Amino acid sequence: VQLQAYGGGLVQAGGSLRLSCAASGRTFSIIAMGWFRQAPGKEREFVAAIRWSGGGTYHADSVKGRFTISRDNAKNTVYLQMNSLKPEDTAVYYCAKMRYYSDYTSPGNYDYWGQGTLVTVSS
């Protein structure tokens, strides 16, 4: 599976961005997809995940009410709508394919990763 993430950019605090992640290759193997982010000097942290079948979603407490994960199965694409952005949301955002159903928040449970897209929120 190949993952291509895009949609990052520079936005002012309070603004919005939508990230997209297109999957190609063995997409029939996708059971869930997630978004993670990594700020400079910090560990990679879970942002949101979505089940491919049924569409159940999970969001980190830090983004609940502001970010929404969604997917388009026909396009093999997962999205992250980010509203009310804050400077602390600045990071490289990665999409990833889950290996098997387990702890959605653990990067180790994901086996394919996109290249990352930079989101910068200015104050």
Would you write up a description of this structure?
There is one protein chain. The model has no long low-confidence stretch (mean pLDDT 95). This protein is globular. It has strands at residues 2-6, 9-12, 17-24, 32-38, 45-51, 57-59, 67-72, 77-82, 91-98, 110-113, 117-122. Strand 4 and strand 5 form a beta hairpin. Helix content is 0%, strand content 52%. The strands form two sheets. Strands 2, 4, 5, 6, 9, 10 and 11 form a seven-stranded mixed sheet that branches. The N and C termini lie far apart (37 Å). It has 123 residues and is mostly beta strands. The protein is built from no helices and eleven strands.
Helical content stands at under 10%
Distance between the termini: 37 Å
Give the overall silhouette.
Answer: globular
Given helix and strand content, the structural type is: mainly beta
Radius of gyration, whole Å: 13 Å
Mean pLDDT: 95
Strand content: over 45%
Write down the oligomeric state.
Answer: single chain
Q: H/E series, N to C?
A: EEEEEEEEEEE
For the report, how would you describe the main beta sheet?
7 strands, mixed
Number of strands: 11
Counting DSSP H or I runs of 4 or more residues, the number of helices is 0
Question: Which segments are poorly predicted (pLDDT under 50) over 5 or more consecutive residues?
Answer: none
